[in-house]
Design a protein that fits this description.
single chain; alpha/beta; about 50% helix; 2 domains; 5-stranded mixed sheet; about 190 residues
């Protein structure tokens, strides 16, 4: 997915939902927070949005812009509406939302979940594609291990699961550092 596609999704969703603010969840929130995201972080063909002021309009957005819509067939990507309570986010995540608004969004602001919050939430699920996403951001120095660990520590999950996630973060950090050292030796 590209930034121009996020802009189009926000503009179209705004018209359908008659809402000027959406929360942008998941991996595509990177498009509103980073100027040059790693290519490996842009593989999804879906953008997860939530109408911030008119949440009841989510079904209209999904019908018009969703997976099987004409919009999806024409544009090559689709919009899904996800409620904030579906995922586990660190405490205070709404205070760290990053606004994304351009001329192409036509007055619509996408409030993108901050990258450390996205990564903590993704690691709570522990899917392989999410681990790859986090590893890519660590390798590109777009997230800081200490901040990520602090965010994981405030996830609303069982202590045993939090411990697993923190161990995974430590493993990913070690892998990224080892890869850097290996590349430096190869130069």
């Amino acid at each position: 997915m590209k930034k121009s596609q996020l802009e189009l999704a926000l503009s179209a969703a705004g018209q359908i939902a008659r809402d000027s603010e959406f929360i942008v969840f998941g991996s595509q929130s990177i498009l509103g927070t980073v100027s040059k995201p790693p290519k490996g972080c842009l593989v999804s063909l879906e953008v997860d949005l939530y109408p911030r002021n008119h949440p009841q309009a989510w079904s209209l957005v999904v019908n018009e812009l969703g997976r099987r819509s004409m919009f999806s067939k024409k544009q090559g990507f689709f919009v899904d509406c996800v409620a904030p309570d579906v995922a586990s986010f660190p405490e205070g995540w709404t205070d760290r939302l990053v606004p994304f608004r351009t001329q192409r969004t036509r007055g619509v602001t996408g409030w993108c979940v901050e990258l450390h919050d996205v990564c903590a939430s993704k690691l709570a699920v522990m899917r392989e594609k999410d681990v790859v996403f986090v590893r890519s951001l660590l390798a590109a120095d777009l997230i800081k291990p200490v901040v990520l660990k602090n965010r994981v520590a405030s996830l609303p999950v069982k202590p045993s699961h939090r411990k697993e996630i923190l161990e995974l973060v430590g493993q990913l950090v070690r892998e990224v550092r080892a890869n850097r050292k290996s590349k430096e030796k190869g130069k």
